[in-house]
Every structure is written in C-alpha cells, then in structure tokens.
Amino acid sequence: MAAPKKGRRPAGGQSRPGRALAFILIAMVALTGGMFWSGHTTPRLGIDLAGGTSITLKAKAEPGQESAVNESNMNTAVGIIERRVNGLGVSEAEVQTQGRENIIVNIPKGTNEKQAREQVGTTAQLYFRPVLTVAAAQPPADPSAKPNGSATPKAPAASGTPADKGDKGDETATDDKGGKDGKSASPTATTAPQGRAVTEGLKAPSPTASASASASGAAKETTPPAQPVDPAIAALQQKFAALDCLDPKQRSAAGQGVKPEEPAVACGENGGMWEKYLLGPAEVDGKDVGKARASFDPQNGQWIVDMQFTNAGSKKFQKITGKLSQQAEPQNQFAIVLDGEVVSAPRVQTTLSANAQISGSFTQQSAQDLGNILSYGALPLSFVTQSVDTVTAALGSDQLQAGLIAGAIGLGLVILYLVVYYRGLSFIALLSLGVSALLTYVLMALLGPAIGFALNLPAVCGAIVAIGITADSFIVYFERIRDEIREGRTLRPAVERAWPRARRTILVSDFVSFLAAAVLFIVTVGKVQGFAFTLGLTTLLDIVVVFLFTKPVMTLLARTKFFGNGHPWSGLDPKRLGATPPLRRSRRTSAPAEPKEA
C-alpha cells in the first residue's frame, strides 16, 4: 500500500490558518489607523439623529405655461436636485415632493450646509448668452447721463484673485484638444466696438456713435443724423445703466421673467467684485449640456471645467462660438446664466463644438461648483424658497436611545443562548461578533467623508438586523461540526470536513440577503437606502469575518486539549452530543463443512 504524499491537505482543510488571521488583523489595524489619521473617529449622523436644515421649494411656472407644473417635471426636478445635493444617495440629504407643487429638501448637520443651500437655491433654468456689454456694478454718479453702449468693461488682470465662482473675466473657453494660445485678448476701451455689439445683439441701431462724437467735440455738420431707436431697446439700455448690482434686491430681480429669446441684463461676481452685464438672446439651453466635470490640467497647473454637449447642443454651441471668436472683448465672451445670475463668462478664442474647456483662475471648489451647475442646472421649472427651518435632533436622539436599548437586549439574548447551548463555542462566536462590530464601525466612520454616508435610524436598524445574520453563520458552522462528531469523528477532522458544507450554506444565505439589500437600495430613496446600504455592508463583512476569522480560529482551537478532547464545557462533548462509535465490520466465523458422504 502506497504511503500518503507528504504535505497533502485534507479535503476542505486549511493548512495555514495563521495567514488568514494575520491578513484580517493587518486590515483591521490599517482601517483603524486610517480612521484616526483622517480625524473622523465617529460616523456622520443623518438629519434625524444630528439635526439639520429643512428647505421647502415651491414650483413657479412661467407666464402662460402653468401646465408645466406637473408630476413628470416635478420628478425630474427632484432627481436633478438630489444628484446635485446628495451625490450618492446615502449622504442622507433627502429630496422629495410634497403635494403638487412643493419639494422638501432635508440637509443633515455635519455637511457643508452653506454650499448645500446654494446648490438647492440655484434651481432655475440655465442658459448660455452672448455678452454685449460689461460695466461696473453701480450706475454712473450723474443720473441724467444718457445710457449707451460705451461703458468701459472692467479688465481683470491675468493674475486676478480667485473668487468662489472663479474669475469670470479671466476665464477662456477652448476645445478639449488644447486649442488655446494662452493669451487673453486685450479689453476694448473704445466706444465703437461696444456700440456696434449692442446694436447687433438687439437687432436695432444705437445712438452711441453720434453721442460719442458730440462728446468728443467733433464738427456737428459732419455727424450723420441719429437713427430712431426702438423704445424697447432704449428701455433695456436705460435699465442696464440704472442697474445697481451691489443692491441684493436689484441683483436678484435683474434677470427674472426674461424669455430666452429676449435680451437681458444680469449681475455677476468677478474676482470678488460685482459687475453688470448686457446680454443677447440665449443661444444654448442648459439641457444641451450632456455632462460637465472639473479636472486638473497638469500642463498649465490649473483647474479647468470640461464640458460635453449633446448632438443638438454641439451644433448650437459651434454656431455661437464661431461668431464670438471673431469679436473683440467683451463681445467674445458668453455668459453662463443660472437663476438670472452670471456664474461665469469665459472668453472664446476659437470655434467649439461637442467638447469644450473653461479655464481661468479656478480653485478646486469653484471648478467643481461650476461643473455641478452645468451638469445639473437645467431644470424644467423655476422654484422659489418658501421656508428654511432648522431641525433639532431631540426626537431622533430619543428614538436612537430606544433603538440601542432594544439592540442591547437582543444582543444579550443572543449571547445568553450561545453560552447556554454552545458553551465554549460561544467564545468563538463572541470574538467573531466583536471583530464584525469593529469593522462595521470603522467603515461607517470612513465612509462618511468618503462617499457621504450618514447614519440614520433605519441604518441603525440595519446594523441590529446584521447581528442575527452574523450569528446565523456561526450556528450553521457549529452545527455542521457537531454533525461530524455525532458520526464518530474526532474534532480536528470534523472541523475540516464540516467546513465545505457549511461554507456553501453561508454563501447562499448571505447572497440572498445581499441581493435583497441591493434591490432595496436601487428601488427606494431617502432613509430606506440607509437601511439597505447598512444591511448590504454588514452582509459582506459577515463573509469576510467567517472566512478569515471564525474558521481559522476554530481550526487552531481544535488543536487544544480543551476542545480537542471534548471537554464537557467545550460544547463539543461526544457523549453529550450522542456520538456513536465508528461502524466496524465484524468477522463472521463459518462452521466447518461436513464431509461429503461417499
């Protein structure tokens, strides 16, 4: 009979359990160290536990378009606002409809509430308009001065101070292939180009040329007579001249109620200072932007915003940038107007189409904000803020305390059952539960700043349910070991033979739980997603703990006398389990054959 090969592993065996234990120990130390290094040693709490801000928005349809306030457009607006504020759906910023025309936005404390409020407030439609004239924020000191298109545009230097929304005067729009020469066109201080740009944009002549000639002392007999001015154009120019962008009321009302096909006046922040703009009709709608994102350009060492247009939008954008690239400043700029405010006004240096880049004095935050606005700013409706309320965490804290008490009672009952029924094996189960709890806590603390995960009451419920899922995996493995011992095997081979069958059962059970959590996360919104996310996370951790901790520890303890010899308090006593000795074949003695008769 051939001898067994040396070093051969038994079926289902684990030759070196120390490797698995060392791996999970290193992972635990690394994750815990990362938690303390990041400074986020506690999970971020949701609005029901930490308090926060609740904002109520009311939909407002444009005149003559009252039917636009419908369920479809409201759901579209909810989706856009949710992506804008929330990011991943587990950051706990809730966005949901209330009634026919209201949207409720709940922003938990601990997030950047100021930035989140700004993202919620900027909910109007997004347009790209050509810039006709730029002027200082305040009107001229002489109120009798006749407005014209000769306002000298402010010319920010290339080294302008970065603002929260980027230095619009120093921004340039280029194609994504680097079609930028790195030079900014010099601002035009003469009156003729600006007067011409205004008349072209408004489709009517302007009296700028004659007014400027009279002011310069030119001979009146050589000045051509002024052409009649359209009253609507004159009113718009007068509104532009009288606009004071330092007044918050005038600033917010400047671009409201203007149709896309009409010229408009608007205010915008440039390098920390406000400016006023006279803008032409909208050439590109915000819905024409496919996506936009901030990125860092290593060649120029600055943050940029990459834009990608839809098929229809690329044709519109190519047409308008082709015209603007041939103009002098500031008529070579297009204004990105959101909620009646100019959030950016980059220069155009070449004809652009499907892809474009906006570069300038951006910080990382200002580039990300602009990319977010371009991606999610095109809403089908306009909204007004009805109320902004502060939510306290008193009620949530009481509910959390009650939930933790219930969880502690449930955990105590589980521990009592394990000790009474499994005795020494309960030590392994409690160690495994401790490892699972530590990993869950550390990951929740790290996922807060990483993906915006916020712990709310449903998430706490998911963590409590996970205790039962984890304990169930231990029970499955322990019962498989006991079955092997009942068949007459000793502990060490019983541990290895029981593992393959227990492993299949554990994987199937956890797969069903994870699948249910994934489906729940996809089809639900708000707080229920927190429950689904926590349930899915703890289910994955259950597999990690059972494979890398429970099984290796069981293998090592099977080599000890306490467990290996079946101590009555080990939970593996063969007599207590009713083990039967191995069946052995008995030799039958046959009677001697009788001699045959002759």
Characteristics:
alpha+beta, 46% helix, 5-stranded mixed β-barrel, 598 residues, 5-stranded mixed sheet, 15 strands, elongated
As residue ranges, the low-confidence spans are: 10-14, 143-170, 177-223, 583-587
Sum up the overall morphology in one term. Answer: elongated
SS element count, helices: 17
Radius of gyration, taken over Cα atoms and rounded to an integer in Å: 36 Å
The class by helix and strand makeup works out as: alpha+beta
- Residues in helix, %: 40-55%
What is the residue-averaged pLDDT?
74
User: Biggest β-sheet: count, sense, barrel?
Assistant: 5 strands, mixed, barrel
| Amino-to-carboxy terminus distance | 46 Å
Give the strand tally: 15
Strand content: 15-25%
Strand line-up in the sheet with most strands: 4-7-6-12-11
Task: Write structural notes for this entry.
The protein has a five-stranded mixed barrel, surrounded by four helices. It has helices at 17-38, 47-50, 71-86, 113-121, 191-202, 208-215, 231-242, 248-253, 311-324, 364-376, 394-422, 425-451, 457-486, 491-523, 527-557, 561-564, 574-577; strands spanning 52-60, 94-98, 102-108, 126-136, 172-174, 264-270, 273-279, 284-285, 289-297, 302-309, 334-338, 341-344, 347-348, 355-359, 382-391. Residues 10-14, 143-170, 177-223 and 583-587 have low confidence and may be disordered. It has 17 helices and 15 strands. The two termini are 46 Å apart. Helix 13 runs antiparallel to helix 14 and helix 13 (457-486) packs parallel to helix 15 (527-557). It has 598 residues and is α+β, with helices and mostly antiparallel strands.
